[in-house]
Specification:
The protein has 681 residues and is of the alpha+beta class. Helix content is 37%, strand content 20%. The chain has 5 domains: 3-65, Orthogonal Bundle (Helix Hairpins); 79-318, D-amino Acid Aminotransferase, Chain A, domain 1 (2-Layer Sandwich); 322-421, Nucleic acid-binding proteins (OB fold (Dihydrolipoamide Acetyltransferase, E2P)); 436-583, Orthogonal Bundle (DNA polymerase, domain 1); 605-680, BRCT domain (Rossmann fold), CATH 3.40.50. Strands 2-13-10-3-9 form a 5-stranded mixed beta sheet, sandwiched between helices. The longest helix is centred in the first third of the chain and has 29 residues, at 3-31.
């Protein structure tokens, strides 16, 4: 194997790892309102992934987090398809990065630019649609293309008008941010605490939780507010040519527009605005983590267009992360589902961003050693956004000699089994497959939203089921109905909760093979790899029997992943688990309407863009992949076909420029029929 090939394989593996991590954090942040990653960590991973995908377009994927915003809508709400995508924003973390963005924009336009500066609120992005001046639909951003219908909950927000005043088009969609004012949030938490309920960590989570209440009366109990910051889909004419005029127009219609928005005439004024709000942000009655800078003229915005999920005409200039000094009291360890031994810091409690911080992740032994962290150190802790903090560095000048260096455990902190340390990785592992901590984490992963999606089964309930010997592994969940009486006797599992849980477990049997593969928790196998395996082999027995070479020959799967898959299915205990799932009647075969054996698009590269009439873009992309083709998000000289719907945007222009074959939806369908017919002859 050449040095170049080795490098590309490592790059591909890194891309897959970043996508897996970002997908996990998207679900935790947008769906479960329980973020684990620092904003800075998430932004760093997203930036690295975007750079790698730009540098290596052959590894681009339409399901990459760089092509999506947020996460999929919760199933309990009706899905709303946005007529225009709700985009995210690129970030600038310092003055140089902002100036670099400005330079790029200026080169593309060559005109003197005015900007509108707006505060970047930390809430929940929404869309509100008005027909003939009446509010008819409200939705969350969701994944940017589809969101959750929260119309009735939005109607409880007093600052969102139900009827518009003035002159308006027949259909007007506005975009805004639902926020929980800080003063109200604190009072709300005091009330919850007095009622014996858990307090919310931050205003953003409280706002998201309120807007996702099934009962609007519950939403109404929380004093939510909203700021409208832009216009989406419009059927009719608008009397505004700039972003600043748009905000004034929206204000005249009756919308709540943030008073701190400002039209500025130069880059220096942008910097001045940003610097001012860095200083006074903590005095505001709502959480914000930066400034959004937008090109003012709307025709310039349209000319600049978008790249991936981000508009070129706007950027978020993030505030510096808040840091505080505290003491590292101890370093403890937990066990992950793969047996990884994960260190974390016990801190002397410190208030950062309105939260009482007691713990922080330490990642692995190398992380601790590289920062020379010692128990007893005075340390700087950073909390970027409203998420779990991290220890930035110690303060060596404050050491008095009582500090102690970390001693990695030699035995698992849960089962006391000897720990294995790999020279190839920074992590240490408990290799006892019967370790209770691993079992618990594995079951947690098995029931998670990205896997079997069994709701109503949290870590505490799982631990109880394991402790009471009702389950030994995830497959035993499907036999839980035969132990109902005993389960009902257990603390934390009531009759109603148990009935709901058993219903959810039974429903999960309908999950497709790729979900089952994801749920197994095979190292390096996330949703994307699981889908590739299910499409190629069609059933789990073929995957079990496949050689490492056969697995590695699948485009998108390299030697490291192939080795991990082969190793997993070489373990008799894992085969035992699969067989138990087979007995439980899970889907272990692929249900596919397309003829996978007819690879008529083999080695052909497609880009799909615009809104389709008869199929969703995802359905078209899946059909292309099922017939052997590859789907990317970027039009390049390597692209063979661009499939276009209405409003295809700049990708159509790029395809015309490069003289690439363009197919409308009907032409695409005709091409497939023609190729399959010829293939049969």
């Amino acid at each position: 194997m050449t040095e170049k090939t080795d490098s590309e394989n490592l790059t591909r593996l890194r891309i897959e790892e970043l996508r897996s991590q970002l997908n996990k954090h998207n679900i935790l942040y947008y769906q479960e309102n329980s973020p684990e990653a620092l904003d800075s960590e998430y932004d760093s991973m997203m930036r690295e992934l975007k750079e790698l995908e730009n540098q290596y377009p052959q590894y681009a994927s339409p399901v990459s987090p760089t092509q999506r915003v947020g996460a999929l809508p919760l199933k309990r709400f009706t899905t709303v398809t946005h007529k225009l995508p709700m985009l995210s924003l690129a970030n600038a973390f310092n003055k140089d990065e902002f100036l670099s963005w400005n330079e790029k924009v200026s080169k593309l336009l060559t005109n003197k630019l005015d900007f509108v500066c707006e505060l970047k609120y930390d809430g929940l992005a929404i869309s509100a649609i008005y027909e003939n001046g009446n509010l008819v639909k409200g939705a969350t951003r969701g994944d940017g293309n589809k969101g959750e219908d929260v119309t009735n909950n939005l109607k409880t927000i007093k600052h969102l008008p139900l009827n518009l005043s003035g002159t308006y088009p027949s259909v007007l969609e506005v975009r805004g941010e639902v926020v929980f004012p800080i003063s109200d949030f604190r009072e709300f938490n005091v009330t919850r605490s007095a009622d014996g309920l858990s307090e919310y960590t931050n205003p953003r989570n409280a706002a998201a939780g309120a807007l996702r209440q099934l009962d609007p009366l519950e939403t109404a109990k929380r004093p939510l507010d909203i700021f409208i910051y832009g216009i989406g889909y419009v059927d009719g004419d608008l009397p505004c040519k700039t972003q600043h005029e748009s905000l004034e127009y929206l204000s005249n219609l009756g919308f709540n527009i943030n008073e701190h928005n400002m039209l500025v005439k130069s880059v220096d004024e942008v910097i001045e605005y940003y610097s001012r709000y860095v200083e006074i942000q903590t005095n505001l009655n709502y959480a914000c983590d930066g400034v959004v800078i937008k090109v003012d003229r709307l025709d310039f915005q349209r000319h600049l267009g978008t790249v991936g999920r981000e508009p070129k005409w706007a950027i978020a200039f993030k505030f510096p992360s808040e840091q505080k000094e505290t003491t590292l009291l101890d370093i403890k360890f937990n066990v992950g589902r793969t047996g990884s031994i994960n260190p974390y810091a016990i801190l002397n409690p410190v208030q950062i961003g309105g939260a009482n911080i007691r713990q922080a992740t330490l990642h692995n032994e190398d992380y601790i050693k590289s920062k020379d962290l010692r128990i007893g150190d005075a340390v700087i802790v950073e909390r970027a956004g409203e998420v779990i903090p991290q220890v930035i560095h110690p303060i060596p000048s404050k050491r008095d000699g009582s500090e102690t260096e970390l001693q990695m455990p030699t035995n698992c902190p849960v089962c006391n089994h000897v720990i294995f340390s790999s020279q190839d990785e920074a992590m240490s592992y408990c290799v006892n497959s019967g370790c209770p901590a691993q079992t618990s984490k594995m079951v947690e992963h098995f029931v998670s939203k990205g896997a079997m999606d069994i709701q109503g089964l949290g870590p505490k309930q799982i631990q109880v089921l394991i402790t009471e010997n009702l389950i030994e592994d995830a497959s035993d969940l499907y036999d839980l109905k035969n132990h109902q009486e005993r389960a009902m006797e257990i603390e934390r599992i009531g009759e109603t909760s148990l009935d709901n849980l058993l219903t959810a477990i039974s429903a999960s049997r309908q999950q497709p093979l790729e979900r089952v593969l994801t749920a197994l928790g095979i190292k390096h196998v996330g949703p994307e790899v699981a889908e590739l395996l299910s499409q190629r082999f069609q059933n789990i027995d073929s995957i079990i029997e496949a050689t490492e070479t056969e697995i590695q020959n699948i485009p998108g799967i390299g030697p490291r992943i192939a080795s991990s898959i082969r190793s997993y299915f070489s373990n008799p205990s894992n085969i035992k688990l699969v067989n138990k799932l087979r007995i439980a009647k899970l889907n272990l075969e692929t249900v596919n309407d397309y003829q996978l054996e007819k690879q008529v698009f083999l080695n052909k590269i497609f880009v799909v863009t615009g809104r389709m009439e008869n199929f969703s873009r995802t359905e078209i992309q899946n059909r292309i992949k099922a017939l052997g083709g590859k789907v990317t998000s970027t039009v390049s000289k390597k692209t063979d076909f661009v499939v276009v719907g209405s409003d295809p945007g700049s990708k159509l222009d790029q395809a015309n420029l490069l003289e690439i074959n363009i197919l409308e939806e009907a032409q695409f369908t005709d091409l497939i029929q023609s190729l399959l017919l010829n293939n049969d002859q």
